[in-house]
From TrEMBL:
Top-level taxon in the UniProt lineage: Bacteria
One GO term describing the cellular component: cytoplasm
Modified residues annotated as N6-(pyridoxal phosphate)lysine in this record: K195
Record bears the keyword Glycosyltransferase: no
tRNA-binding among keywords: no
UniProt cross-references to CDD domains, sorted A to Z: CGS_like
One record GO biological process: cysteine biosynthetic process via cystathionine
Species per Swiss-Prot/TrEMBL record: Dyadobacter sp. 676
Protein's recorded name: PLP-dependent aspartate aminotransferase family protein
Cofactor field: pyridoxal 5'-phosphate
SUPFAM superfamilies linked to this entry: PLP-dependent transferases
InterPro entries assigned to the protein according to its UniProt record, in alphabetical order: Cys/Met-Metab_PyrdxlP-dep_enz, PyrdxlP-dep_Trfase, PyrdxlP-dep_Trfase_major, PyrdxlP-dep_Trfase_small
Length: 381
C-alpha cells in the first residue's frame, strides 16, 4: 500500500460490534470478563484499549515498522526508550537536540547513572571514535530544531550496526510522510505525535515504532509498568488527524518552500534556514534522505537587534506566537527566549542560534496571506 492509502486505512477495522467505520472512543477503564481470565483480549485500560490499538497499528504502518507503542507525550516516549538502559550504559546524542530531550537525559537519567556523551552536530560523522564497549544507544534528531541541520541517518546507523549499538531517531520534524528512519537502518523511531501526526494543536502524545520484536516487548512492558499511556479520546483525535497527514504535509511543504524563497529575496532579511534552499548545507542530503523539505523555516533579520526581532513577532497577525509546531495553523516562536531560553547565551551562539532568529511553523493557510502577513510585520518599524 502507498502512503495516502495507509494514512486513511492502515490499522482501522470496522468496529466488530456495530460496523462503525470510525474506531469508537472506548472510554472505559476495565473490561468485563466471563470468568476469571476469560475475556476478549482486553483486561484493564492502562495495559490496552481498542482505540489505542488501532492508532498504534496505524502508526506502525506509516513508519514501515511492525510495532507501534503510544505514550502520554513525546517525552514519555523518550523516557521509555531511556528506561531500556542501566547505570553505566553510555548514550551518544548531538548537543542540539530538542531541549526537553536534553533536560530528560541530563536532569533525570544522568543522576540515575546513565552516561551521556553530547557531540557537536557538525561532527556527528566522527561519532565512531566515541563508541566504547559500554555504548548502547545513539540518539538522533533530524532535521534539527531550530536551524534545520540534516544528519545522515543511513551513515550513522551503518556505523552503529557494526558496533552493536542501537539507534533511535526523533522523526517529529519530518513526519513519516517525508522520512522513514527504520528504512534507513534505525532500530526505533520516536515521534512527538503532538506535532504533525496529530496536526491540529489539540493533543499531546508520543509514539515509538520498531520492527524488533524483543525491543517492542520491552517498550510495551514499560508502557504498562510505568503507565504513561494516552487516553482513548486523544487516540481518536490522532486517528482522525492521520487521515489527512499526506494532504497537510504536501501543503506545509509547498507553503514553507514559497515562504523560504520569499524571505531569501527580502532586503531586510538576513540568513534563511530551510533544507529546501540550494545553499542550505544539508540540501543535498535532505534531497536523498527525505521526500520533501518540511514545514519549518527559520530566519534572521538584517537589523541585528533584539528589539526589532521582538517587534516583528508582535506585528504578525496570522502567525500566532507560541511554542509547538506542526498544526494546520501557522505559528512563530523566538527560540532564544522560548525553546532554548534555558540554554546559556554563550552556548546558544556557539551552535549558531542568534537572539534574532525567528522560527516559523508554516501552516496550511493560503500562502499569499502568510506572505502578506510577514511582509507587513517585517516592513513596519
Ligand atoms: C515537541 C517535541 C518533543 C517533545 O514532545 P512532547 O509531545 O511535547 O512531549 C520531542 N522532540 C521534538 C523534535 C519535538 O518537537
Amino acid at each position: 500500500m502507498k502512503f495516502a492509502t495507509k494514512a486513511i486505512h492502515a490499522g482501522i477495522e470496522p468496529d466488530p460490534s456495530t460496523g462503525a467505520i470510525m474506531t469508537p472512543i472506548y472510554q472505559t477503564s476495565t473490561y468485563v470478563q466471563e470468568s476469571p481470565g476469560r475475556h476478549k483480549g482486553y483486561e484493564y485500560a492502562r495495559s490496552s484499549n481498542p482505540t489505542r490499538t488501532a492508532l498504534q497499528n496505524a502508526l506502525a504502518a506509516l513508519e514501515n515498522g511492525k510495532y507501534g507503542i503510544c505514550y502520554a507525550s513525546g517525552l514519555a516516549a523518550t523516557d521509555a526508550v531511556l528506561k531500556l538502559f542501566l547505570p553505566g550504559d553510555e548514550i551518544i546524542a548531538p548537543s542540539d537536540i530538542y531541549g526537553g530531550t536534553y533536560r530528560l537525559m541530563k536532569r533525570i537519567f544522568e543522576p540515575l547513572g546513565l552516561v551521556f556523551k553530547f557531540v557537536d552536530i557538525d561532527e556527528i560523522g566522527g561519532l565512531a571514535a566515541l563508541i566504547t564497549t559500554k555504548t548502547r544507544l545513539v540518539w538522533l534528531e533530524t532535521p534539527t530544531n531550530p536551524l534545520l541541520k540534516i544528519i545522515d541517518i543511513k551513515h550513522i546507523t551503518g556505523i552503529c550496526k557494526e558496533r552493536n549499538v542501537l539507534t533511535c531517531v526523533d522523526n517529529t520534524f519530518a513526519s513519516p510522510y517525508l522520512q522513514n528512519p527504520l528504512d534507513l537502518g534505525a532500530d526505533i523511531v520516536m515521534h512527538s505525535v503532538t506535532k504533525y501526526l496529530g496536526g491540529h494543536s489539540d493533543t499531546v502524545m508520543g509514539a515509538l515504532v520498531t520492527s524488533n520484536g524483543e525491543l517492542a516487548n520491552r517498550l510495551k512492558f514499560i508502557q504498562n509498568a510505568s503507565g504513561a499511556v494516552p487516553g482513548p479520546q486523544d487516540c481518536f483525535l490522532v486517528l482522525r488527524g492521520l487521515k489527512t497527514l499526506h494532504l497537510r504535509m504536501q501543503r506545509h511543504c509547498e507553503n514553507a518552500a514559497q515562504i523560504a524563497m520569499w524571505l531569501s529575496a527580502h532586503s531586510k532579511v538576513g540568513k534563511v534556514y530551510y533544507p529546501g534552499l540550494p545553499h542550505h548545507p544539508g540540501h543535498e542530503l535532505a534531497g536523498k534522505q527525505m521526500r520533501g523539505f518540511g514545514g519549518v523555516v527559520s530566519f534572521e533579520l538584517k537589523d541585528d537587534s533584539y528589539e526589532k526581532t521582538v517587534r516583528t513577532m508582535e506585528n504578525l497577525r496570522i502567525f500566532a506566537l507560541g511554542e509547538s509546531l506542526g498544526g494546520v495553523e501557522s505559528l512563530c516562536t523566538h527560540p532564544a527566549s522560548m525553546s532554548h531560553g534555558g540554554m546559556p547565551r554563550e552556548e546558544r551562539l556557539k551552535i549558531g542560534l542568534k537572539d534574532t532568529l525567528i522560527r516559523l511553523s508554516v501552516g496550511v493557510e493560503d500562502v499569499e496571506d502568510l506572505v502578506a502577513d510577514l511582509d507587513q510585520a517585517i516592513g513596519s518599524d
